[in-house]
Write a structure and sequence with these properties.
Blueprint: E1 14-19, H1 32-52, H2 58-67, E2 70-75, H3 77-83, H4 91-119, H5 125-143, H6 168-188, H7 204-207, E3 222-226, E4 232-236, H8 239-246, H9 251-262, H10 275-279, H11 285-295, H12 307-310, H13 312-318, H14 323-326, H15 333-336, H16 341-352, H17 387-397, E5 408-411, H18 417-429, E6 436-439, H19 457-470, H20 473-489, E7 504-509, E8 512-520, E9 526-532, H21 538-556, H22 561-568
Parallel strand pairs: 1-2, 5-6
Antiparallel strand pairs: 3-4, 7-8, 8-9
Helix pairs in contact: 1-4, 3-8, 4-6, 4-17, 5-6, 8-9, 9-16, 19-20
Length: 572
């Protein structure tokens, strides 16, 4: 279950999140009245949705109607702060986040009290009115920036930092919202026992066109957009140019900094590998044009230099490369024709960009914290947000969220048990209701990895040796296992005998009748699978056939069966 919802067992709430960048005016001012108005509207919408909702059990339905919990929250605080020229890890950034959280929840409770005046309070209010009003008073006290005097609390929350907030209009709206929430609540009660949470917004954040999700900072400064016709193109995070503008950089400075991060997308005038150095090695204008076209959708320049772009005849006859070498998965055409690793890296930086602002021309180092992300950016990036910065941002918002905050705090692979203890202790001291720690590499497989083995064998072995000597046993086994799988997968294909054994297994999966047939090597190892679904449409059957072919090829190239089992078991 998501950690943002911590209400009673057997209850549920409907979630909604506001994209905070939608309330930022072109001049950079945050529109607090619009946020308050949107909060009122969405509180009413979510209240209506309680009546429309379908619940998985009678008990959940009964309690959800009795307490009528709502889950209004926000997304894109990381994008908003960066666009405003504020660091995620700053007193100003935390004050902005706290003030926005206070406005949303305070306005939502005030609206809930107004609805209670017309429709009556939630059925469970009377039995809990004394304690609920105490909670509202504590919220209000925090919104007014008061550090002491909280009722029946052993751990005081982090109050709203009025002095650090660069937009005092937000402070004014926040305090007034909570004044109204308490005043109207004392008069009418509340229609809803809970009004706000901060959800991860991982899926809806994409639909809302958010640069960052929930309360998270940005993950990377440069993103890749997939093209409908295939391929990718790189774009800078939209908050970056806005941040540079807010920090006072000229258009020329901004363009130079963005080009450094994203790259120029061409090898013309690039250092090391460029049009002139390529012509000196036999490249014609036609072949250079083909390379330039391929660079538009390449992550690195080496991906554009291959027989598919240049043609096998050109590679073998003009460049003098053995045809067998062209099919080698470790083959690097640029190194083969005499370019050094330094030349390639310099050209790659020019063409494909650094994907970080560290080292960007004309960028004041004092402004680098504004662009810090959850992880180091690009190959040369070193900066990233600390564990404490994540926790303190949550602590700034938590006093003004009636539920909790769902957030994962990423820790480095060398984080110790004491580091984890310290993170949980700080979270408890600051009054956070929940957090989740994820230590990089703590699972043998993970969707995102901050450490990449080098492209050259020697570099890869050095990295692997360092990994094996410095990192914990579980993580070492994961890294080494990944390397072994990679090496095995690069071996030659082991074809099955013309006549082989196998079996047929009938099953029903999700209502679909499936026949799984296998082919085995002479020693009994699985070498291929076939999946038949006789009564399904042609497109669905074709998709399953292609899946079976892909698995079969992987098995024949040495991918362990266990890898597939781990990857696909329990998927839906």
């Amino acid at each position: 279950p998501c950690s943002e919802y911590m209400f009673l067992d057997d209850t549920a709430c409907n979630l909604a999140s506001l994209n905070l960048m939608a309330f930022r005016d072109p001049d950079g001012r945050f529109d607090a009245p619009a946020l308050a108005h949107a909060t009122r509207l969405w509180t009413i919408v979510l209240e209506i949705s309680v009546l429309m909702a379908q619940f998985p059990s009678a008990r959940i339905a009964e309690l959800s109607y009795e307490y009528r919990t709502l889950g209004l929250g926000f997304a894109n605080i990381g994008g908003l702060l960066m666009a405003s020229g504020l660091s995620y890890d700053s007193d100003e950034g935390r004050a902005i986040c706290g003030a926005i959280s206070a406005i949303i929840t305070g306005e939502a409770y005030a609206t809930s009290a107004e609805m209670a005046g017309e429709l009556g309070a939630f059925p469970g209010y009377e039995a809990n009115s004394k304690d609920m009003l105490r909670v509202i008073r504590n919220h209000r006290r925090a919104a007014h920036g008061i550090a002491e005097g909280y009722e029946a609390l052993n751990t005081n929350p982090v109050p709203l930092d009025h002095q650090s907030c660069p937009d005092q209009a937000l402070i004014s709206f926040a305090t007034k919202a909570w004044d109204r929430a308490l005043e109207l609540g004392e008069k009418h009660g509340y229609r809803n026992a809970q009004v706000s949470v901060v959800a991860p917004t991982g899926t809806i954040g994409l639909i809302m066109d958010c640069d960052t999700t929930g309360i998270e900072p940005d993950f990377a400064l440069v993103k890749f957009k997939k093209l409908a016709g295939g391929g990718y193109f790189k774009i800078i995070n939209r908050a970056v140019p806005e941040a540079l503008n807010a920090l006072g950089y000229s258009k020329a400075n901004i363009e130079a900094i963005i080009n450094y991060a994203v790259g120029f997308g061409t090898l013309k005038d690039a250092p090391g590998v460029n049009h002139d150095s390529l012509k000196a090695r036999g490249f014609t204008d036609e072949k250079i044009a083909a390379i330039e076209a391929a660079l538009a959708t390449s992550f690195e320049i080496k991906f554009a230099f291959n027989k598919f772009t240049l043609g096998e005849e050109f590679c073998t006859q003009v460049l003098g490369i053995d045809a067998a070498r062209l099919d080698d998965m470790d083959f690097n055409l640029l190194r083969e024709i005499g370019f050094s690793a330094r030349d390639i890296e310099a050209a790659n930086l020019y063409c494909c960009g650094a994907m970080t602002l560290e080292g960007a021309p004309g960028l004041d180092e004092a402004h680098l914290p504004v662009f810090d992300c959850a992880n180091p950016c690009g190959r040369i990036g070193k900066r990233y947000l600390s564990v404490d910065s994540h926790i303190r941002m949550m602590a700034a918002a938590q006093p003004f969220i009636s539920g909790a905050i769902s957030k994962t705090i990423n820790m480095a692979s060398d984080a110790s048990i004491d580091d984890c203890k310290a993170a949980y202790m700080l979270s408890w001291k600051l009054g956070i209701k929940a957090n989740a720690l994820y230590r990089d590499g703590s699972k043998l497989s993970q969707p995102l990895n901050s450490q990449i083995l080098g492209e050259d064998e020697e570099e890869a072995e050095e990295t692997l040796e360092k990994t094996a000597s410095e990192q914990p046993a579980l993580l070492r086994s994961g890294k080494i296992a990944e390397r072994i799988v990679e090496v095995v997968a690069k071996s030659e294909r082991e074809k099955l005998p013309q006549r082989r054994k196998g079996y047929t297994q009938k099953a029903v999966v999700g209502g679909h009748k499936v026949y799984l047939r296998t082919g085995e090597y002479e020693d009994g190892r699985l070498g291929e699978i076939f999946i038949d679904m006789h009564k399904e449409g042609a497109a669905f059957r074709a998709m399953m056939n292609n899946f079976a072919i892909a698995i079969s090829l992987g098995l024949q190239y040495g991918v362990p069966l266990d890898e597939y089992v781990e990857a696909f078991t329990f998927t839906r």
